[in-house]
Amino acid sequence: MTQWTIDSLEDTHQVAVAFSADLKAGDVICLFGEMGxxxxxxxxxxxxxxxxxxxxxxxxxxxVQEYQGRLPVRHLDLYRLQGSELGLMxxxxxxxxxQGVIVIEWPDQLGQRLSDRxxxxxxxxxxxxxxxxxxxx
Length: 137
Description:
By secondary structure, this protein is an alpha/beta fold. It has helices at residues 9-20, 39-49, 83-88, 91-94; strands at residues 2-6, 28-32, 64-67, 73-77, 101-105, 119-127, 130-136. Helices cover 24% and strands 29% of the residues.
């Protein structure tokens, strides 16, 4: 298990950019953490690390955003969805993105669709701006 303890937005940026260096097409990253933990901030830095200059926003209301870079990124936020709604939006077509990287906030909403092969990161609020990012096995 790999862990990073970060004390600032700059630390978050550095960890996410370093993490992005090892990503390859077809990778799926699941971000777990409470509201306000910094999931979208992490995604923003990850997208920048993949060479995109796009402004990253939380796709809570649009559900999916895509960004272009060295590898394209498909960013999903499933916070507002329930199991039956995933079927209505045909979630499986969004999870098929072999040419890029998928990042999913609130992946627990996927239930049985959550794959053991995906990269799972937990972002935990410790205090103020301090966070612990853990790569789960």
